[in-house]
Amino acid sequence: MFTDLLGEHFVHTALIAGAVVAIVAGTIGVFVVMRGLSFAVHAISELGFTGATGALVLGLDPVLGMICGSVAVGAVLGVLSLRGRERDSAIGAVLAFGLGLGVLFLSLYQGYATTATNLLFGSIVGVDDAQLLGLAIVAVIVLGAVVVLWRPLYFSGVDPEVARSRRVPVGALTVAVFLLVALTTAEAIQVVGVLLVLTLVITPAAAAQRLTVRPGLTLALSIGIALVSTEGGILLSLAKAWPTSFFISSISFAFYLAARVTSYARERA
Amino acid sequence: MSIVAVEQLALRFGERELWHDLSFELAAGEFLAVLGPNGAGKTSLLRILLGQLEPTGGRVVLDRDRVGYVPQQRVFDRDLPLRGRDLVRFGLDGHRWGVARLSGEGRRRVDDVIAAVGASALADKPIGVLSGGEQQRLRVAQALVSDPHLLLADEPLLSLDLGYQQVIVQLLDKRRREAGTPVVFVTHDVNPILHVVDRVLYLGPDGWAIGSIDEVLTSETLSTLYGTEIDVLRVRGRVVVVGTPDAEHVHHVH
């Protein structure tokens, strides 16, 4: 049964889509964790849900609606570029309102309830070739931007005052980070769903950061953990018919725990 | 030839005016100490020079390319994925686009400047686990590695023990003597830098004064700047200011 499934086209598509999303999420996660934007990621993904349900009501493509919702919120948060507690409370307020709208849209939408479930919890095995192409295009955009912006993005993330004095456009880069996070979130939703985006965008980077302080190695480990979690999760869900998102989040959480134990042991040594 | 020209600068936050008609020039190689009580606008002056704060009036003229800046101490998160040497390296190429390996020449410059602040043993540790003084030394290295035309330092000696205070002061002094880089040094305590300071800019509640230490740090001048009786004493080669309302200058116990 398991080996039969491995020959199926939809399984190949799922594995490729999973790899694409894992690479993007593992990369952006490094900047999200560095800048303390976990809560913003959560908000952006939930408003992606609002965008998707809104699109369903209007009879449009939910993936497109999701991208629009995420990017709109990401742009607003980036432009406001609030700090600390003010940012957290503003995000909380926007997030709650957005979810309220999402519930309304969902009740207005007369289609299948599974669409909503898929948005919330992911449906990687349902990815078709067209969707995979969309994932790949967004991935190229995000990764290309990270390559071009890498040094100033890192500099302004960890040391904004001095970066500003070196005439790094710190404000514009903040907006850029939020837009990249929004695009990444819209990618990750398609694999693990709105509610589990953090398992790919936060957990691998947070684990990597526990294991090394070298910027390049942090990135490599974060991508590696995201990849193993995603591909491992997809394969396990073929062997055992439990939700893919459960397996993905379990594996990435196991990495996180292992990383914390390792760093704790290292500090004590 | 002046590197920095400050012309009739005024700064006001709402109703509160910090200073007006502030004018001075900085020549190549000059070491300027900026003194004054908390809230006198010392950091604001640096931010105006950096172009990060708009003055209420007047203007500053300087080339903002390659300004070495040592900001006021800020604590880094313990788990920030950043080593001491990464922080220093940002001073060299952090503002450039793209991904690149540091060249051999670049790596040598980073290593040299880290060695100069006595931080070679700290360079590969996470920045967040270093003490405030250790981070501060790397900050100075970061400012120096950029081969700056102008150095702006905001309380760079904070959290440093006396030995490292002198290491940092001598490094800045050497830089301005050898490369002609003027230094603007904001501090609450002039004593560690008495022997290198050319001029002092004192920002007081009732005005400002600029000149040599002997001209500015006198009972008469400071009494005028504070609008109250101030005594400036010279004790064993140290300057002690007595009578300032917030007692800023009466020596801090660290």
Describe what is shown at a glance.
The complex is a heterodimer of chains A (269) and B (254). Chain A is mainly α. Chain A contains 13 helices and no strands.
Radius of gyration of chain A: 18 Å
Second rung of CATH, namely the architecture of chain A: Orthogonal Bundle
Secondary-structure element series of chain B = EEEHEEHHHEHEEEHHEE
Distance between the termini of chain B: 39 Å
Quaternary structure: heterodimer
Beta-strand portion of chain B reads 25-35%
CATH class of chain A: Mainly Alpha
Strand content of chain A: under 5%
Uncertain ranges of chain B: 248-254
The geometry of chain A reads as globular
What integer value in Å does the Rg of chain B equal? Answer: 19 Å
Give the proportion of residues in helices of chain B.
25-40%
Question: So, the CATH homologous superfamily of chain A?
Answer: ABC transporter involved in vitamin B12 uptake, BtuC
Could you report the average pLDDT of chain A, rounded to the nearest whole number?
A: 91
Topology diagram in text:
The complex is a heterodimer of chains A (269) and B (254).
Chain A lengths: L1 H5 L2 H27 L2 H20 L4 H19 L3 H25 L4 H9 L7 H30 L1 H6 L4 H23 L5 H4 L1 H9 L3 H25 L4 H25 L1
Chain B lengths: L1 E12 L2 E12 L3 E5 L6 H9 L6 E5 L5 E4 L13 H10 L10 H13 L15 H14 L4 E5 L7 H18 L3 E4 L12 E6 L2 E5 L1 H4 L2 H8 L4 E5 L2 E5 L12
Parallel strand pairs in B: 3-7, 3-8, 5-6, 6-7
Antiparallel strand pairs in B: 1-2, 1-4, 8-9, 10-11
Helix pairs in contact in B: 2-3, 2-4, 3-4
Q: What do these coordinates show?
A:
With 269 residues, chain A is mainly alpha-helical. Chain A has a single domain, classed as ABC transporter involved in vitamin B12 uptake, BtuC (Orthogonal Bundle), CATH 1.10.3470. Chain A has 13 helices and no strands. In chain A, helix 3 packs antiparallel against helix 4 (62-80) and helix 7 (129-158) packs antiparallel against helix 9. Chain A is globular. The model of chain A has no long low-confidence stretch (mean pLDDT 91). Chain B is of the alpha/beta class and 254 residues long. Chain B has helices at 42-50, 84-93, 104-116, 132-145, 162-179, 213-216, 219-226; strands spanning 2-13, 16-27, 31-35, 57-61, 67-70, 150-154, 183-186, 199-204, 207-211, 231-235, 238-242. In chain B, helix 2 packs across helix 3 (104-116), helix 2 (84-93) packs parallel to helix 4 and helix 3 crosses helix 4. The termini of chain B are far apart. The A-B interface holds A 30, 34, 147-152, 154-155, 158-159, 161-168, 208-210, 212-215, 218 and B 50, 52, 64-65, 67, 69, 71, 74, 76, 79-83, 86-87, 90-91, 93-100, 125-127, 139, 142-143, 146, 152.
